[in-house]
Design goal:
mainly alpha, globular
Length: 130
């Protein structure tokens, strides 16, 4: 099974589990999930041990962190934007930053995961009329 499909399946499992377990009632669940997903690239950059890569990944993570906090504090649309932006980052990551700590399958997996979460949150915002 491709990493993209695996990521999408696990995102679906995450959303369904979060809803069934009641985690979605906690306003912080998806912002923290977005931060966690972004921090994986920092972990990979530490594995790479390249200071320029750590700084580059850190700058991108800062943007994702701002979107996540905005989604928590201001409006859930910022979370949709954050997951969608992270999906774009996953797609273009290897062309922008050469982080040797990133497993070859990770960007495709993460892309599938983040796209589906973004879509799920988008549909939730639409349904709730936010």
């Amino acid at each position: 099974m491709s990493p993209l499909i695996t990521g999408m399946i696990l995102a679906g499992v995450t959303c369904i589990s979060a809803r069934l377990a009641g985690f979605e009632r906690e306003k912080s669940f998806y912002p923290l999930l977005l931060i966690f997903m972004a921090l994986q690239y920092l972990l990979f950059s530490v594995i790479d041990s390249n200071k320029e890569v750590i700084i580059g990944e850190g700058l991108v993570i800062t943007i994702i962190l701002v979107l996540s906090v905005s989604g928590y504090k201001i409006n859930q649309w910022w979370l949709v934007t954050g997951f969608a932006a992270h999906s774009l980052w996953d797609y273009f990551h290897n062309a922008i930053i050469h982080n040797q700590g990133v497993p070859s399958w990770w960007p495709e997996f993460c892309l599938g995961y983040n796209v589906l979460i973004a879509l799920y949150l988008f549909l939730n915002c639409q349904r709730r009329g936010i």
